[in-house]
Specification:
Layout lengths: L3 H10 L2 H6 L5 E3 L6 H4 L7 H21 L14 E3 L1 H11 L6 E6 L10 H19 L15 H7 L3 E6 L2 H13 L2 E6 L5 H9 L3 E4 L4 H13 L4 E4 L5 H20 L10 E6 L4 H14 L3 E8 L4 H8 L28 H7 L5 E5 L1 H15 L12 H6 L3 H9 L10 E6 L7 H8 L7
Parallel strand pairs: 3-11, 4-5, 4-7, 5-6, 8-9, 8-11, 9-10
Antiparallel strand pairs: 1-10, 2-3
The chain binds pyridoxal-5'-phosphate (PLP).
């Protein structure tokens, strides 16, 4: 833990930290956000990198379609629906007193094929990228070959000599584990104590080795990396620093443009887009937001949402310390019912890259995640896991937060807000077994 004097110096400089230390909900607007052109000046990644990732996923589509017939309808692309949720919008207004100007939609990454969470984007992309590298290097693929070939027994037996490993609180492990097993790799997932039992069971059913740790996520990652480094034929997926994961997530933005167009929704300077995404270590919300900024530039306003006990990215952004600060430094536990967001230290790579691009952050109490979950189920009949409901804190706070009002005024949107589009990014839930859903539905926590 950080020295007391250092903590006091930080809270003196950034008074919002005091509330965060007491695990209170906060709305933070990022004073470091810059206009798109300026924000991109120091960026190590660009639109070409996202185009490259998108093209790679397209090359793999025939392979994915063959391994996972549920993706046939979309031709082997793993993509989720974007749906209006007007009844939830009404509920947010009536129950929480937040009149949200414009319309509210849900991006159902909770229902992505194969992994049932947003991790189906980054995790699967990284496994495929590694697979393409190996296949080209070892002559399994030639220019012009259909990647469907990689599902042949000859290729599969080649990949059986190789291992893929990852440290995970659950969902990343599921996406990496299931895809690695499908390619033929030996897959090892190092799971932290907060990972749910059903996720471990599901992975084992796919032939994945699950190693369990008593400790938190950082420890699982550290040990996984150590074991992987000892084996030259093992590849470690590094959630904190991986550009491939990040780019896999970013492809979402390019696909979203088509979906908005189909629904006749305009996004431009006069039609702002607000997006609210749950944040753990930062890869998923960072990658998706980075993509949205490339596509929509200054018309996209991206907000992250984190649990009050694990607001690691907010701490890193507010203080500018990024991965040099953790939630325990502030006396927080890092423990939350939002297992996908139970991360104590943010990615330094994502924090640094996204510091000039994100509009702000909301923190949310666990008790509210369960309320939002039930609200969505009752109004729209859509089930999300608690972690995935964190994004709703955005619309709930939007209509009542002084910080948000000032942001809207400063951006000179005040007259445009009726034309705004708000997207809550639903990050997981469709694979949650019925018994666990029942347990979630009946969970009521005290909101201190
Ligand atoms: C992993 C995850 C997130 C956040 O992604 P990070 O890359 O860890 O920031 C959000 N929601 C769910 C359900 C997740 O599994």
């Amino acid at each position: 833990m950080m020295e007391k004097a250092e903590r006091e110096r930080l809270t003196g400089r950034f008074p919002i930290l005091e509330e965060m230390q007491r695990a209170q909900e906060v709305d933070w607007i990022n004073p470091g956000m810059r206009a798109y052109e300026q924000a991109m000046e120091g960026s190590s990644l660009h639109m070409e990198d996202i185009d490259d990732a998108e093209a790679r996923l397209l090359r793999f589509a025939p392979f994915i379609e063959r391994c996972f017939p549920e993706t046939k309808e979309r031709g082997g692309l793993i993509e989720s629906p974007l749906v209006p949720i007007p009844r939830m919008q009404e509920r947010i207004c009536e129950k929480y007193g937040s009149a949200l100007p414009g319309r509210l939609l849900l991006k159902k990454d909770s229902h992505l094929a194969i992994a049932g969470s947003v991790k189906a984007r980054g995790g699967i992309y990284e496994v495929l990228k590694h697979t393409e590298d190996l296949a080209l290097q070892h002559g399994l693929l030639k220019e012009g070959d259909s990647y469907e070939k990689l599902a042949d027994p000859k290729c599969r037996s080649f990949f059986q000599d190789y291992t893929v490993q990852v440290g995970s609180t659950g969902n990343l492990g599921m996406s990496i584990g299931i895809m690695s097993a499908a390619v033929g790799y030996k897959a090892i997932v190092h799971m932290s104590a907060d990972a749910r039992q059903w996720k471990k069971d599901l992975l084992r059913a796919h032939g994945v080795t699950v190693m369990e740790y008593e400790s938190d996520y950082s420890e699982a990652v550290k040990n996984g990396r150590r074991l992987s480094d000892q084996d030259p034929k093992s590849y470690f997926v590094d959630d904190e620093n991986s550009k491939d994961l990040f780019l896999g997530y970013a492809v979402a933005a390019k696909r979203l443009t088509g979906q908005l167009l189909e629904q006749g929704i305009r996004v431009d300077e006069a039609h702002p887009l607000f997006v609210y995404i749950p944040c753990g270590v930062g890869g998923a919300p960072g990658g998706v937001s980075f993509g949205l900024k490339q596509v929509f530039r200054d018309a996209a306003h991206c907000f992250f949402a984190e649990p009050v006990q694990a607001p690691c990215m907010a701490l890193g952004m507010i203080t500018g310390l990024h991965n040099r600060i953790c939630v325990q430094d502030m006396g927080l536990t890092g423990m939350t019912h939002a297992d996908g967001l139970a991360v104590g230290r943010p990615s330094g790579f994502v924090g640094g890259l996204m510091a000039p691009m994100i509009s702000g952050e909301f923190t949310v109490k666990d008790a509210n995640l369960y309320h939002y979950m039930r609200d969505l189920l009752e109004t729209e009949d859509i089930f999300l896991e608690p972690s995935a409901c964190a994004g709703f804190q955005g619309p709930v706070r939007f209509g009542q937060s002084r910080e948000v009002r000032e942001y809207v005024e400063r951006m000179e949107f005040s007259g445009l807000m009726e034309r705004a589009t708000h997207i809550v990014w639903a990050t997981g839930g469709s694979l949650v077994p019925e018994t666990v859903r029942e347990e979630y539905k009946n969970t009521y926590l005290d909101a201190f």
